Amino acid sequence: MFIRNLTMFQFSPVIDWSQVEKLLPLSQLQPVGALELSSRGFISPYGREGGAALSHRSGAFLWLAIGTETKIIPAASVNEMLETRLQALEAQGQRPGGRERRRMKDDLLHELLPRALVKSARVDMFVDTQRGIAFVDTSSSTAASDAVSEVRGLLGSFPASRLRAAVAPRSVMTGWVAGEQLPAGLSLGEECELRDPVEGGATIRCQHQELRCDEVEKHLEAGKQVYRLALIMEDTLSFVISDDLVIRKLKFLDGAFDSLAELAEDEQRQEMDARFALQTGQLSRLFDVLQLTFQLEEEA
Q1: Which of 23, 48, 239, 292 could cysteine-pair with 250, CB 3.0–4.6 Å?
Q2: Euclidean distance between CA atoms 271 and 277, whole angstroms
Q3: Which GO terms describe its molecular function (predicted)?
Q4: Lowest-confidence segment of 119-133, 150-164, 192-206, 265-279 by average pLDDT
């Protein structure tokens, strides 16, 4: 698998990761119970074929995967069933109040839980244990926080914090689109989102377009700023970064696969190991570029 989105956290590199392999079985994902809405825990990074391996290490990097099982109970179905039961009671001359309605709805949920379909999902996390950086494969703030919370529960303490920049990212990105020179190794892509910074201001989205053009320039002159911007790092990565430093549409380009050419015929596990090593190397380089560009620092 390849990471497609990226939310980054920093933490103290003095955290002891030596006991992770022993602790993981204690926090392994358990099937969601008959009367539970959801279950979350660690799963094998290699998927169902991973057996008992709940982590993978390569140098200073640790690969963890957090799995979830969630019961699917459509709210519309619950409301329909509730309405049917309320109508039956009203036909008998009973008019349940608000508290009774809530109790009836809770009872319905408990009735439906054992028969509900289960949806599975996973979030992967690449942890640079030496530098204190966690790369979480999601653009969802909630999913990222849940993944960090799961690691915190595993270790007992994991004071990880979202990144922030000493300089406003949208100011830097606006300058790039306006014509300022980009850092070495970075070039503009063909996508951006411009917004009027005033509340309720207009939003303009550009895709598959040369960004340094008269049309975009007019929007910048009108006071709009760049909140999302597509970038290319050398010939290895393309991505869209937003002003909150979340990365979306992360794609490893052909140049990133050069080192995998000799492994095309190897076993699946060996190939996945090589892909993991490739990704962690590229993500480390990407973080270095972003850290220098935006003067990244820990969130207070």
Answers
A1: 239
A2: 10
A3: double-stranded DNA binding
A4: 265-279
Q: How far is CA 139 from CA 5, 241, 243, in A?
A: 6, 10, 13
The average pLDDT across 279-291 equals: 92
Q: Give Cβ neighbours of residue 142 (< 8 Å, ≥ 6 apart).
A: none
Q: How far is CA 60 from the centre of its chain?
A: 21
The two tokens of residue 101 are 């309605």
- pLDDT tens string 88-128: 988 888 888 989 989 999 889 888 888 899 999 999 999 99
Q: How far apart are CA 259 and CA 261, in angstroms?
A: 6
Instruction: Give the sign of the dihedral formed by CA 219, CA 221, CA 227, CA 230.
Output: positive
- Does residue 49 register a pLDDT over 70? no
Q: How many helices (H) and strands (E) does the chain have?
A: 7, 13
Q: Which residues of 171-193 are buried (b: 16+ CB within 10 A; e: fewer)?
A: ebbbebbeeeebeebbebbebbb
Q: Report the distance separating Cα 77 and Cα 84, nearest Å.
A: 11
The token pair that represents 201 in the structure block: 């201001």
| Exposed / middle / buried, residue 4 (Cβ in 10 Å: 0-12, 13-18, 19+) | middle
Contact status, residue 90 vs residue 68, Cβ threshold 8 Å: no
Contact 23, 154 (CB under 8 A): yes
Q: Is 277 exposed, middle or buried, given 0-12, 13-18 or 19+ CB atoms closer than 10 A? A: middle
Q: How many CB atoms lie within 10 A of CB 129?
A: 19
Residues 240 and 247: their CA atoms lie apart, in Å, by 6
